[in-house]
Amino acid sequence: MVISAIGQGFLWGILGLGIFMTYRILNFPDMTTEGSFPLGGAVCVTAITHGISPVLATLLGIVAGMCAGFITGMLYTKGKIPVILAGILVMSGLNSVMLFIMQTPNLSLLKQPKIQDFFTNLNLPDYYDVVLLGLLAVVIIIALLLFFFFTDFGQAYIATGDNENMARSIGINTDRMKVIGLTLSNGVIALAGALIAQNDGYADVGKGVGVIVIGLASIIIGEVLYGEVTFAERLIAIVLGSIIYQLLILAIIKVGLDTTYLKIFSSIILALCLMIPRLKEALHLKTGLEKE
Predict the structure, then answer these.
(1) Is 20:138 a contact under the CB 8 Å cutoff?
(2) Which helix (H) or strand (E) holds 51?
(3) Per 3-state DSSP, what percentage of the chain is helix, strand, and coil (rounded to 5)?
C-alpha cells in the first residue's frame, strides 16, 4: 500500500507542477484545472479504446488540455473576463465536451493496453511499475520546466507574474505570457489526468471535482516543509509534498475512517498546511515579545 501511495504521489505531483505554473508564478488560481484534468483522461482513454497506442493517446490528452488552457487564456486576456470566472466557464463547458468524446460518463480500459505496460518485461513487484512511470514522467516534466524557465522567454513569463506593470514597461507582452502560461499549465495537468486515468483503468467526467485541492496541497506541503529553496528544489518539493499528501490519505484510510468523506479530509489537511506559516509567525512573534 505504501508503494502504491508513493506511485500515486508521483502521478499527482505532475498535477501540482501544472498548478504551480499559474498559482505561484502568475499569482492566480486557474479553475480550468478541474476540467482539463479529466479531459486529459477522457481523450487518452477514448483514443486507447479506438486502437491508438497509449503513448500517442497520452500526447493527445496533453494537446486537449492545452486547448482548454488556451481558451481560458483568450477569454481572460481578449474577452476581459476575470480569470476565475473564465476558468469556471471553460471547466463547465468541458463536461459536455468529455461526454461528446466518450459518449458515456464513464469509460473503462478493461483488457486495453496502458502506458505502464511498457514496464511489464522488467518483472517488477506490484505497484513498482507505477512508481517507475511516475518518477520518469516527473523527471522529464521538471527538466522541461527548468529548461523553459531559464530561457529569456521563461524569464519574461516569471517577470509577468512578479510585476506585470514593470514587465509591460520593458516591452513584454504580458497577455501573451498569460495565454502561454495557461496553455502549458493545463497541458501538464492533462498529462496527470491521462496517466492517472490509465493507472485507475478508467476515465470519468466527474473525476476533476476537487483535484485543485490535491494540487494545492502538494504545493503548500512542499513549501511548508522545505521553506526557502532554489527554483529546481522547489519543483522537487512539490512532488515530495504530493507523496506526503498521498501517505497522509493512506494513513487516514488505515485508521479506519470512512473513505466516502476523503474530500473533506483533503480540505482539512490543506487548511492546516496553509495555516502553519501563520502559526509559525505568531509563535515567533510571541517568543520575541517574551524575550523583550
Answers:
(1) no
(2) none
(3) 80, 0, 20
The DSSP code for 201 is T
pLDDT of 244 strictly over 80: yes
Nearest Cα to 221, choosing from 261, 185, 272, 281? Answer: 272
Q: Is the pTM of this model over 0.85?
A: yes
Give the contacts of 203 (CB within 8 A, at least 6 positions apart).
38, 41, 42, 44, 45, 46, 98, 102, 106, 107, 109, 197
Percent of the chain with pLDDT over 70: 96
* CA distances from residue 232 to 17, 95, 147, 180, 258 in whole angstroms, order as listed: 12, 35, 10, 21, 37
Residue type, 44: C
Q: How far is CA 290 from CA 19, 259, 277, in A?
A: 40, 44, 20
CB 28 within 8 A of CB 194: no
Q: Where are the domains of the chain?
A: 1-283
The C-alpha cell that represents 233 in the structure block: 528544489
Name the phi and psi angles at 234, rounded to 5. -65, -40
Is the distance from CB of 254 to CB of 21 less than 8 angstroms?
no
pLDDT band at 27 (very low <50, low <70, confident <90, very high): confident
Q: Does domain 1-283 correspond to CATH entry 1.10.3210?
A: no
Q: End-to-end CA distance of the chain: give it in Å, rounded.
A: 50
Query: Higher pLDDT residue, 43 or 223?
Result: 43
Give yes or no for a contact between 102 and 46, defined as CB atoms under 8 angstroms apart.
yes
